[in-house]
Amino acid sequence: MPAAPLMSTYGKLPISFARGEGCWLYDTNGNRYFDAISGIAVCGLGHSHPAVTEAISKQAAQLTHCSNLFQIPNQETLGELLCDVSGMDNVFFCNSGAEANEAAIKLARLFGKKKGIENPAIVVMENSFHGRTLATLSASGNRKVQAGFEPLVRGFVRTPFNDIKTLDHIAESNSNVVAVLIEPVQGEGGVIPADPDYIKSVEKLCRDHGWLLMLDEVQTGNGRTGSYFAYQEYGITPDVVTTAKGLGNGFPIGACLARGEASEVFHPGSHGSTFGGNPLACAAGIAVIQTIQKQNLSARARELGDRLLSHFESQLGGTDCIKEIRGKGLMIGIEMKESCPELVPLANSQGLLINVTQDKVIRLLPPLIMSDADADHLANTLCTLIKLYAGDDRKSPR
Ligand SMILES: Cc1ncc(COP(=O)(O)O)c(C=O)c1O
Fold first, then answer.
1. Active-site choice (129, 161, 266, 312)
2. How confident is the model at residue 320 (pLDDT cuts 50, 70, 90)?
3. How many whole angstroms separate alpha carbon 189 and alpha carbon 167?
């Protein structure tokens, strides 16, 4: 068969899915797979969730698109829902996580310019990931996503994650800084949560220096880590929050939320998007937020995360091949001592979809709608697989 005329941007696995239902995906040969990655933190409500399907179908039959030249009631409703769950003041809608971060970056620059800072700089973290557009890959702390795309966008100052001393030093020495952009849990970076004391200190530095605290909640948001947004568990108040992935449960939508002074930076002409916040995308977002709230899925994600972590700790703790097991809600990383990308096809052959990031970290992002039995199935299948893979089900002496 000739190769499909697709640009070679992904290393694709040889599986093609025909349909999905809840936590399960079914391939074109009729095999079923437990989806422990939810399309990379997207389908938090599982596949083909009836509320989302109904909202999209109804809206598609009425009006899919009309442009931001006009009033869009669904956009207003979704904006209100997002502000209610986050405590933010207003929202800009776009179509992806990278676009949400682009909006945040532009907002921070304009905020700086208004304060008279000619060359505004944004502090970003080592090991971070913010997207694949030129500005967001420049903000990302990952050489692999930058290599070949130089010259990078200027105006980012990098600092190690979870290290307040270096950030203190930047505050003393760089008067161009206008904002800090940070993931509360580094996802692509290997599921690394921010230390609670660190993130509180970052917030204090932002307040003391008049910087915007900008949280990239593209992966962590929409209930996944145990509250609607992860910052709510840390007890901090950001100025800007970005989200995407889980907001549409598979329908593309992103949002940049702002509060206080940050919410007054953009004016007509500052920023825009043809598709951003169209009636169809917003219908999906409304159904997602209402379902998360109605079913209290954020609290459920915390409960399920604790259940999975205790399974992994009891079944894998002390196993030779494991370096660390960590996570927040339903964002879980099992770090192996050695490189383990072969685990992905091995898991697929056992009917389980997992992801390996940073070469050694098994990343789990399962749906928030799992039952206890689903979580136990996932944990037992994966633990058996890891032990089989490592050829080591002996416990090392503690
Ligand atoms: C924290 C974070 N920010 C931004 C992005 C980029 O989102 P998108 O792929 O929707 O552009 C991702 C995607 O993985 C992400 O995890």
1. 129
2. very high
3. 19
